[in-house]
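Subject: Protein record for review, amino acid sequence with backbone structure tokens
Why sent: The fold of this protein is of interest and is recorded here as tokens.
Enclosed: The protein record, placed directly beneath this head.
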Amino acid sequence: MLKFNLFSILLVVGIVQLTHGLYFHIAETERKCFIEEIPDETTVLVNYKVELHDPRSGGFMPSSPGIGMHVEVKDPDDKVILSRVYSSEGRISFTSHTPGEHVICMYSNSTAWFSGSQLRVHLDIQVGEHAIDYANVAQKEKMSELQLRIRQLLDQVEQITKEQNYQRYREERFRHTSESTNQRVLWWSLVQTLVLVGMGFWQMRHLKSFFEAKKLV
């Protein structure tokens, strides 16, 4: 029973990791951004498709050829690594060179074509070995089924290593942040203590001077 539950959990986790497909609605001037945590030297593949709202049917229909999407990708250092205008349906690929949170933003390339209509954008983000088209690789390199499977396993092992390195990087960054926060809290406590001691000393001197002036002591 325990083995079955463990297998079910691993299966669900695997499905969640492999599934990045979604769709969202966007207006003419609206900008949608997604944050993806990516290890360094990792290939990312973004597939998207734009549909135009049909007021008569209330549904969405394939968009006209003139409709396009502006796609912008920023690395964790807020540097733009990709910024282009694409058509209403396409595939975008880029490789990360810095580990961390990458921001993928999409918005319409013009407001003149839609006349206030709403767009539905289907988005699928694939990271690492999931972004590799192994059927195309096998055809180009003329690999057998066994060779292709070994290639997939090697890519998976490499991706797992990258994920482990990224987790170690995150832990190290979190530790530095915690140590810096603790030092600031310590110094702030010391400053507060010194201020309180100084105010107490000043009040005592002021009261002493007041009592001496009134000849109470």
Remarks:
- Strands lie at 22-26, 31-38, 43-53, 60-62, 69-74, 80-86, 89-95, 100-108, 119-127.
- The radius of gyration is 29 Å.
